[in-house]
Amino acid sequence: METMTTGRFLDRDTPPHLSTLVLVAAVSSVSMNIFLASLPAMAAYFDTTPAIMQYSISGYVFLSGVMQLAIGPLSDRYGRRMVLLISIAVFILASLGAIFAPNIESFMLCRVLQTSMVSGHILSRAIARDIVGATRSASLIGYITMGMALVPMVTPPIGGFLEAFFGWKASFLVQAGVAFGALLLVYLDLGETATRVSGGFSAQIRLFPELLRSRRVWGYSITGAFTAGVFFAYLAGAPFVAVDVYGMSPSQLGLYFSFAPLGYFIGNGLSGRYAVRVGMRPMVIAGTVVTALGMGMSVVLQLAGATHSLSFFGFTIFIGIGSGLALPSANAGILSVRPELAGAAAGLGGSLITLGAGAMSLAAGNLLAVDTSVMTLLAFIMGCALAAIIGACVTAWLDSRTRNPWDLRPDS
Asked: Which site in 100, 192, 268, 281 is 20 to 30 Å from 275, CA atoms measured?
């Protein structure tokens, strides 16, 4: 089925409604963004260092990547619907557990369990591939993530408000409530979209080597990892730059954190509109270039002696625009390796991207623990952005040498 399909809302006998896919994908973003403004206060509450506290971001990203290796094949074997329902239920319990965590160790354990919600992020893409086919999946993924981007646009300011008036625990109560809404929506609206494959979970895992032999899986995954790495490095370092360098309050920080999600919303809107017309390769290259140019302007201002916080945070909108342009097409390329294994491909590609981005987030956090300065963070971000451009160009060159654009294995 290669045409866009619109399901009837709350009818499991038709394809899921776009709003369902958006909410399912967005819950994991809520968990990533809503308590960013609370990180310094949480470090004080648990009597730990900022470097340890930022592991709740970088560690979450890293473990989410590991989790995707299992979720993708499980959804191919047992169905998208069942895996989503179980994952969301675990996330709700973990969010409530974080509220009552007596120490940093217990809190981190709850964050580990919260990574189950990454299923919403990767399976929304797999479901898109299930219902519209290969050629239009980049466009639908763009629209899904465009809607999803609204969440991180509003959650940092909400998180700053919650921190200022109710404390950090309120943000985890909100996470549990949003996830409960997603659970009800999946139960009522999402029927099964996958054609289940036989052979059991172990048989699905044994298909990974075939996916890993694909040039497109590696090329787009590496490019996606550096592209996402820019964003996650920013998330890991910006809260402490904001406090230590600019002396920002939690409410100010929450507001400034909306710039990158706003850009992500714009970039995904452009992907949804132009990905099919322009093609995957140009979209990915354009996204990586936009990120590098935007943050390069911030570097120039810093070198010129700019001291206002907007000289850094204002340009983070280009991180979002670049990611929104590049990542939907990169994910669409990965998903098209084997249509019947869209879940496994989404899980493997998502894992490679997330693990790579998580490693960059961790490195940025450790680097800023030594030197909390704007230029230190910008230098790291620019390195990731330039690596993404190289990855996008090399992948496009290799991809152009494939005789059939949907035959993703190397030419013999």
From this structure: 192
